[in-house]
Structure formats: C-alpha cells, structure tokens
Amino acid sequence: MNKMIPWLFPAAIIAALAGSGCNTLPEPVSYYEMKVPPEKLRQIDTLELTASEAEPDKQPDAAAAEPPEQMDLTLEQCRAWALENNLGLKAELISPVIAAEALSAEEAKFEASFFTNIQYSKTDRPVGTALFVQGSQSDSGTVDLGVQIPLQTGGTLTLDLVDNRTLTNQESFLLNPSYTNALAFSISQPLLRNAGRRASTFSIRLARYDHLSSQARAKLEVITVLAAADRAYWRLAAARKELEVRIQQYDLSKAQLERARRLVQAGQRAEVEILRAEAGMAAQLEQIIFAENSLRDRQRELKQIMHKAGLAVQSATKLIPATEPDPVQYALDSTSLVDQAMDNRMELLELELQIARQVSTIDYLKNQALPIATLNYTYNINGLGATRSDSYDLLLDNNYADHRIGLNLLIPLGNEAAKSNLRRAFYQRMQTLTTRENRQALIKLEVLNALDQTEANWQRILAARQNVLLEARLTEAEIRQFEIGSRTSTDVLEAQARLADAQRAEIRALAEYQIALVDLAYATGTLLGAAKVDWEPASYSKR
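The chain above was modelled as a monomer; its predicted structure follows.
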C-alpha cells in the first residue's frame, strides 16, 4: 500500500477542491411528493347556508389590532403600495432573476475544467518459454492530471501530464522499477460545423435575448399594475361621489315630503301629495343600496391591487380618495403619440428581441447544415528514468517529442433534417415579422382610439357641467311651482332625479376622463404623471 501513496495525494487535493466549491450554492429544498385524494377532484360538495340570526353586540377586543374604520388615500400612496405589494408584480419580477441565472450558466460554458485519472493495477500472467511456463508479474500505478479549456472558436485545448511507475519481474527490463511520464498539449478545432465564435456563443446570445425579454415583460407588468391602480382609484372616487349624490337625492326627497306635509296640513294640497313624496323617498333607498354595493366592489378591487397589510379585501376599512380629479384640456398630437408608442411599447421590443433571436438561430442552423470537419493536433514530450526525478529531468530536457495531426470528416448524405430545421426557422421569422406588423397596426389603433376617447370625455365634462347647472335651476323652478300649486310632488321628484342623473353624469365624465388619460399613457407605453418609476428585478442572497 505504501506504493500507492504518491498517487493518492493528488486525489486528496481534488476532493478538497471539489468540496470547497459547494459553499456558494443555495440551501437545497427537501424533496416532497404531493398526493391528492380522488374525491377532492371528483366530488362536488354542496354549499350549506344557514338562516341569518340577530347576533348580540360584541365587545371590541382592545388587544386585537383592528384596521381603521376609514383611511384617506392619495393616488401617489395607492401607486406606491401597488408597486410594493402586488402579488402578480412580485411574481413577474422574479422572471428576470431566473433569466439572469440562465444567462450566467450559459456564459460559464467556457470555464476551464480540471480532470484527473488515477489507476493502479497488479497483474500476474503466464508466459510460455522454451522449457516451461512462468509467471509475468507487474505492479503499475498511473496518475493523469490535466486541464481542459473550451475555446470560443469552438475547439478544445487540453494540457495533460501523465506519471507512471512500473515494477516487474521480467529480466528483460533494463529499468526496474521504471518511471515514465509525458506532457501533452493538444487542440481539437472544428473547421466547418460548430466552428467560429458565432456558433460557439449561440446559446449565450439566446440566453441574453431571453434575459432582455424577461425584463421587457417585467416592465410591462409594472406599467400594467400602475395603470390598473389608477383606474381602480378613479372608479372608487366616482363610486363614492355617486353615493353622496344618492344620499343628497334622498335628502331632497325627504325635504319634499316635509314640504308636502306642511302644505297638506295648511289645506293647500291634497293628501295624495304626501303619498307621492313618500313613494319617491322610498325609491331613493333602493338607489342608495345599489350605490353602496358598487362602492364596496370598487374598494375591494383597489385593495386587491394594493394588497396592503391590514387592508385585506374582506376588511371593513373605508377608503376615502383624497386626490381630486383635475381636468385639464391637453393639446394632443396623434403623430407624436403614435411614434412614442412605437418606441416605448414593451410588446414591440419583445417582438424585436424575438426576431433577433430567430436571426441568430437561422445563422446557427446554417452552420449546423455544414459537414463535420475536425482538425486534431497533439504535441507530446516523453520522459523515462530509473527514478521519478530522472524521468522528469529527461522530460524537461525535451529531447523526445511526438507530433500527431489528424483530420476527421463526416458528410451527411441528404442532410434533410438540417435543411428542414433551417426552413422552419425561416418560416418562424416570417411569422414573427407579420405579427410585428399586425401588432404595430393594433397599437396605432389603440393610441388613436384612446386619443379620441380622451377628447370625447373632455367634451362630456363640459356638457355635463352645463346640464347640471340647467337641471339645478329647473329643480328650483319646479319647487316654486309646487308651492304655488302649479306642480305636483311627482314633478318635483322627477326634476330632482334628473338633477341627480346630471350630477352622476358629470362625476362619471370626470372619472372617465382621468381613466382615458391613463389609457392613453398605457397605449404609449408610459406613465401618467411627472414622477418616473425605476424598477429592479427581485434580488435574493446566495448562501
């Protein structure tokens, strides 16, 4: 066993190096297997509902952290919480990290590799002589150490050192034990297929394009989340204003009821006026219920987008929009907006990256259609001696050297598979080019529609405001006519209803104008407002 010690020492070094390389790897995830019972997939349970019962008043728990009853919310705070907490955005921001790791793995393909091969053999073979059969015994150990370096030209460079010790009982060996070693420098270089830097770095380019595409999709998701938050915010603001209008209309119908009762008691009106006023007031309660339900829906929608801790969708916290709409008429140029959309839309950028990826694929597949021709060259220096020191001295003298050169050639007959793959890549690129033209046309249409909708909503604001002023004057006139006996309660209630509808139309016009501006910004691939948003992929520390 003492003879194996010189060869076991390199093995210990290799094991130490291999063990030290695992410290940067993340903590492994334990394996688990998920089992789903068949009845969970096949049985549909019934929904058990129980009748509502009056519950006793519950005393609030002082120790429990209850959400606030209401919260003032600005548009800027809504955006910030949406970017910080939105689950869909969090998931999308991990994609660039995954793509970056894939790119890093591809860029590591040219890393050098250390290799070793340790062998020990002991043989005892019968050898026939002129007189008898005798045993030929040998004791041999070999250590082969080397470094292999992939080249960006597509070839492989190898540096190899072999150390061998042989001990035998054969008297014909002049050196016993004998030490031989060899230092070899070899290179293998493709000449046609897989030759050149473009072919060898093909997978790196694809991984880089995938990384850029993932960032484009993440940016698009950021814009989408912000646009959704803005839309939900203005819808919530409109829903709350509409509820206020419904309550105001209820108060007006209540005032009409009191007015009718006063006149009936004075003997100036018939009692039917009281019934008409009561019926009108009861009808407003239903509208208030509808408005409150719509407001709760809008609050849940915004809470879902923000996903703020303490503001769960089922929480009772009332969100009070603190940012008032600021309708301003803008001078909008359709040509510049379309050009801006073509520059900023991430869908077009992703298609451009896909086209670049396909162009690189076509170039690579053209290379793969070539014959295989590989040039191999090896330069080998030999050493021999009765001791290991003598053998290495002879090796360093470089008196005995070998040269080997060879050419391997493989020409496919027909090569139909490579031709079909190349044609398929051409067709895919043609398909993507057509998709890009179609997407450009759709984006142009989207920008122009958003532009027209913005201008139309501005006109709606002006018309709605004028209508509110006229309906308010008409309502006052109907009340005066009722007091002198020329109109009934029904006429007054109808005038109040028209006033409420006009106010609701103005509220909706204001909200939809703000939403139209958001849609216009989204169509051009930008954000509404002066503040810019810088995003970064999710980062995770490596263990």
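Residues 284 and 504 are 14 Å apart (CA to CA).
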